[in-house]
Automatic annotation (TrEMBL), chains A, B:
Residues 1-83 form the GST N-terminal domain. NCBIfam families: maiA. Its EC number is 2.5.1.18, 5.2.1.2. This is Maleylacetoacetate isomerase. Its main location: cytoplasm. It catalyses: 4-maleylacetoacetate = 4-fumarylacetoacetate; RX + glutathione = an S-substituted glutathione + a halide anion + H(+). It is found in: Cytoplasm. Transmembrane segments: none annotated. Belongs to the GST superfamily. Zeta family. One of its GO terms (cellular component) is mitochondrion. It comes from Sinocyclocheilus anshuiensis.
């Protein structure tokens, strides 16, 4: 059975949880507490699993993978049903643009490690980069969206969007500026694979944050 | 013919130039000067091409793509020869881990926009994040590398590595700490597709920076 090393509140861990859930793949969760003891991701034990000292990491089929999009694409290529990337290359391109705007253009700039380095101005910094990314995503999604980010089929773009909106809400970004993103998130968050994997109901979610 | 909107010194633009060159695809370059006039990527005209206001962007087959890895994967899926991703899913996973460590874990934290916001400490900031990423890449590549990043076949991992080493050198990162990365870079930089696309010899390279 695959093992996911993750943390309830890590948006990149949540991406992988959603992918497993959509595919109906059972997996074991091992919690890596990013706060406790100065951060369990910094131990030598975890560094051997992921030299980047970040979650998520996954052991599957005898190998260890890190980086959430690399993990999800490995799952997609080895367990193709239901698919998380459309068949058409142009649509696949659209999915990947949305994934990469989030995974390269937003999330890395507002993750825990970076905000710890920013210090006192961290909320303003996070808001700035989430706003900048969402200002780009909003007109793109307005063009590509149907029921979901790309037409009416759930894809990796949706898997990236929902955890990023969760982060935006944590940092009190004004979501009324982004009606398409907000509408997509509201639809997706009601789907079982997104709901059951939400940070508020994971094995390592502290009692006071449980839904 | 595809059009690449890029900038000679942008490491993400260079990734796309290498991919086109390896595939033998002719393309037109349109320069978006990231410095001049406060940054040509910020104009309304360019915002219509890429709402993220970043290079690269590519128009190809009647569509416009942004985000370098999304662009390269579109090219890979529509022009499969020579391949830039191995056939084996586990090896593809390894390629993508390396790409994503660079594209999500290093480059976004040391790009022009972020460094402008960091201000006076920008060199130290860039060095810190490049060092952190290379400290993770070095042991991974030590395991996966043959002649190139993953075995003896050039892949997207090599396409991401070389421009990131170029950035490391610009920020005077001590590369002697990373013997595997340095050795791979020295091998790759001699290959035509990497040499001909180097920032020192592009149509928009200023005279004083020409090789």
């Amino acid at each position: 059975m695959p093992v996911l090393y993750g943390y309830f509140r890590s948006s990149c861990s949540w991406r992988v949880r959603i992918a497993f859930a959509l595919k109906g793949i059972e997996y074991e969760q091992k919690s890596v507490n990013l706060i406790k003891d100065g951060g369990q991701q910094l131990t030598d034990q975890f560094k051997a699993i992921n030299p980047m000292q970040q979650v998520p990491a996954v052991t599957i089929d005898g190998i260890t993978l890190s980086q959430s999009l690399a993990i999800i694409q490995y799952i997609e290529e080895t367990r193709p049903e239901p698919r998380l990337l459309p068949a058409d290359p142009k649509q696949r391109g659209q999915v990947r643009i949305i994934c990469d705007i989030i995974a390269s253009g937003i999330q890395p700039l507002q993750n825990l490690y970076v905000l710890q380095k920013i210090g006192a101005d961290k909320v303003q910094w996070a808001q700035h980069f989430i706003n900048r990314g969402f200002e780009a995503l909003e007109p793109i999604l307005k063009q590509t969206a149907g029921k979901y980010c790309i037409g009416d089929e759930i894809s990796m773009a949706d898997i990236c969007l929902v955890p990023q909106v969760y982060n935006a809400e944590r940092f009190k970004v004004d979501m009324s500026q982004f009606p398409t993103i907000r509408r997509l998130n509201q639809t997706l968050i009601e789907i079982d694979a997104f709901k059951a994997t939400h940070p508020s109901c994971q094995p390592d979610t502290p009692d006071d944050l449980q839904a």
